[in-house]
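Researcher: First entry.
Model:
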Amino acid sequence: MPNDAVTTGGEPDNTKTTSTESSSDRPREITLDDKDPCGLIPEADWPKLDIKGRGEQSEEPTLKSPQCYYSDVGNVTLVMTEGIEAWTEGNRNLKVEDTKPIEGFPTITMTNEAGGRACFTAVDVADGQYLLTTATPNPNDPSKPEKCDLAYQLAESAMKTLVAS
């Protein structure tokens, strides 16, 4: 499994205040507690995402959150240790951009300004929680979608499952 852990640039900057207020932009709150990260991408979506089989569940070490790893595709992580504002208001080493909302939920994309193999999409689902997808497609396979498109597609697929639950 490649080491594409989320890098936060060291310890959080505790001198900044972050909002823990409910996001008025969310259509509703979807908590991630007791959800299975490997159960969020329906098998019907596997072919279009180039997923070959069930993912491998583990804990994302930096965010201490459950994740599911799909070989040559990426990860789906259920972040329950911080809110999405850690990216939008925090001091992280990735470039953050607003992205088209998914299922009406605020969504951002994060990339490494120096390039890199991974792209991240985060969806604000609840206070102190967000869905994070990481795309790490094989860069030598031209048939794979662009990494940020793939991260967004993973998040779309997972969010359809979350919204329906």
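Researcher: Second entry.
Model:
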Amino acid sequence: MLNKRANVSAKPKGSPLLGEQLCFALYSTSLAMTKIYRKLLRDLGLTYPQYLVMLVLWERDGVSVSEIGERLFLDSATLTPLLKRIEALGLISRRRAHEDERQVIVSLSRAGRELRQKTGEVQDGVFHASGCTLDELVAVKQQLDRLRSRLMENA
């Protein structure tokens, strides 16, 4: 629970309040963030998960499906249909690796590389929607990174 109460007997044990739950704060914040991205990504023709894949590829082109999955914490059963939809948009290509045909390498197409130039408005939109300063957002992100790391260690 997030809030400590002086009078714990006012609430029966084992009856957590929704508003006091860290998991719900994270979940509902994630939903709100996704709604903002949905609106901002509409003009680019991308969904939020597709945008995350593109971010990975804009950082480093020509990576394996497993590398993308590791970066995004997604398994191949989730990632493969997502990649197929992005490929159908003409933004990426997939090919088998020459050295190990079990691996699939994902590369940006010309259209995928060019799309990156149009994403500045997305980041600006998220920043403005947050109502936070840059320092506040950096601090929140660092705290979330630490929390995720600790949770993954114990998962």
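Model: Note on the second entry: Confidence is low (pLDDT under 50) at residues 5-9.
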